[in-house]
Specification:
single chain; about 160 residues; alpha+beta; five-stranded antiparallel beta sheet; three-stranded mixed beta sheet; elongated
């Protein structure tokens, strides 16, 4: 991976300046800058991360859909969603569909950050010309309005 300047990217984390102050090095991913390490010895960083780590995933792709017909439309797009709200449903490619409410879904990409799943769904959504229109919900873009952090390690549950 190449060390890049986050300011040169169109997308970057909401906390990239804090990460820079801590010595983070960045690499490009999905048109954005992602912190990859802090320039220390890999084994030292890995040892610390096994104890407790916070990972900024904010530049990774995510989107949402909401409203009448959302669940049925997403299922027609091969998204696996079960009836329970406030749960996440793993998809075949490692992505996750989070059912926030009966008709609201947040979709987050896999940790590889390729964005294919998210891009496919965003491209597939469109109002049809039929009248009356079939209920398919409406998009709720999430990429630039929400942070996404992952907490991991031995002490994550205590945090």
């Amino acid at each position: 991976m190449t060390d890049i300047e986050p300011d040169a990217q169109l997308r970057r984390s909401f906390v990239y300046r804090k990460l820079q102050d801590l010595g983070a090095r960045f690499a490009p991913l999905n048109g954005g800058a992602v912190a990859i390490d802090f320039g220390e010895d890999f084994e030292d960083e890995a040892r610390l991360a096994r104890r407790l780590a916070i990972t900024d995933l904010s530049p990774l792709p995510r989107t949402g859909f909401k409203g009448a017909g959302t669940i049925e439309w997403l299922q027609s797009q091969d998204v696996t969603i079960w009836p329970d709200s406030n749960k996440g449903y793993r998809q075949a490619g490692g992505e996750t569909a989070l059912r926030l409410a009966p008709s609201e879904i947040l979709l987050i990409d896999s940790l590889s950050g390729g964005g294919g799943f998210i891009n496919k769904l965003n491209a597939a959504w469109a109002w049809s010309q039929e009248r009356p229109r079939k209920a398919i919900g409406y998009p709720m873009p999430r990429a630039d309005s929400h942070c996404w952090f992952a907490i991991s390690g031995q002490y994550a549950d205590l945090m």
